[in-house]
Design goal:
The protein has 345 residues and is an alpha/beta fold. Helix content is 41%, strand content 9%. It has a single domain, classed as Thiamin diphosphate (ThDP)-binding fold, Pyr/PP domains (Rossmann fold, 3-Layer(aba) Sandwich), CATH 3.40.50. The termini are far apart.
Length: 345
């Protein structure tokens, strides 16, 4: 079944981007794709267990928002169960993300979280969440404390913005509407990023909602809502930059609906038999990494050789991450009940 919704157009002629910025965006997307491909390999080799949800195809959203418009390590990022690449974009080292997937003590969640629960206080990554829409109110809490520190406690440096990522399926849940209402009422510095990949597990988005254009739901709360081509990193970056500027200026939240597509099944346990070949080919042809590579070479911001050099560097980085994960220790049995409660610093 081919989804007929037209992707919004974006005029790249108006984009101002330096060579350095372009290469950062490209490298981050390649990092995400290469990491996820390696995860698939490790999963099928029996190195990872449980559910593993990959991000292939959606890289322009994570990169465009976090690397393109935010301050990684300062601003807050809240994810879903498809969280590996959000963690990488937020600056969590690949070796720590891989070790977490291997269930090792050196993982970013000490081996306790696995694929769906990446967390790093250092990198302001508020977590991945297994339950649909679970992270939305958490992100609002982070945005509230930023505003409270600045306006009530007088901390002028507290201008952090929170980005909350979730899928189209989450937009039919109560947390979505309740949190949008609070965020608009209190003018919270938050961006709601809907990664509309057309499918909520095996349910087509158009069959599950009365109005498939999610960004329009923001208008019910007198909130800015924009639709963007989620396969175009520059389009996502521009929409996110405008949303971040509004949030830092105290003008409140934004809903960004990024129209994107996951290239693999819902998880690595999903045979992916529900989506038609026609639909997949339509989206495969819009691969965000290939599209951006062509843009960089066309605009003479990079050569094919430079991009190949980045590809090779990332492959080596991921291979090192796997070695690190394989050789890292398991969490000791003596610490079975550790990290359940907060500890003294």
């Amino acid at each position: 079944m081919l989804q007929e919704r037209t992707l919004p157009t974006f005029n790249t002629a108006d984009v101002k981007i330096s060579k350095e910025e372009g290469l950062v965006l490209y490298e981050d997307m390649v990092l995400g794709r290469t990491f996820e491909d390696k995860c698939a390999e490790m999963y099928y080799r029996g190195k990872m267990f449980g559910f593993v949800h990959l991000y292939n195809g959606q890289e322009a959203v994570s990169t465009g928002v976090i690397q393109g418009a935010m301050r990684p390590g300062e601003d807050y990022v809240c994810s879903t169960y498809r969280d590996h690449v959000h963690a990488l974009s937020a600056g969590v080292p690949a070796k720590e993300v891989m070790a977490e997937l291997f269930g090792k003590a050196t993982g970013c969640s000490k081996g306790r979280g696995g694929s769906m629960h990446m967390f790093s206080a250092e990198h302001r990554l508020l977590g991945g969440y297994a339950f649909v829409a679970e992270g939305i109110p958490v992100a609002a809490g982070a945005a509230f404390q930023s505003k409270y520190r600045r306006e009530v406690m007088g901390d002028k440096n507290s201008d952090q913005v929170s980005a909350c990522f979730f899928g189209d399926g989450a937009c039919n849940n109560g947390q979505f509407f309740e949190t949008l209402n609070m965020a608009a009422l209190w003018k919270l510095p938050i961006i709601f990023v809907v990664e509309n990949n057309k499918w909520a597990i095996g349910m087509a988005h158009d069959r599950a909602t009365s109005d498939p254009e999610i960004y329009k739901k923001a208008h019910a709360f007198k909130m800015a809502g924009v639709e963007v081509d989620g396969m175009d990193v520059l389009a996502v970056r521009q929409a996110a930059k405008e949303a971040v500027e509004r949030a830092r200026a105290g003008e409140g939240p934004t809903v960004i609906e990024a129209l994107t597509y996951r290239f693999r099944g819902h998880s690595l346990a999903d045979p992916d038999e529900l989506r038609s070949k026609e639909e997949k080919e339509y989206w495969f042809a819009r691969d965000p990494i290939k599209k951006f590579a062509a843009y960089l070479t066309e605009k003479k911001l990079a050569t094919a050789k430079q991009l190949q050099g980045i590809d090779k560097k990332i492959e080596e980085l991921i291979d090192e991450a796997v070695k690190f994960a394989e050789t890292s220790p398991e969490p000791p049995a003596s610490e079975l009940y550790r990290f359940i409660f907060a500890e003294d610093q």
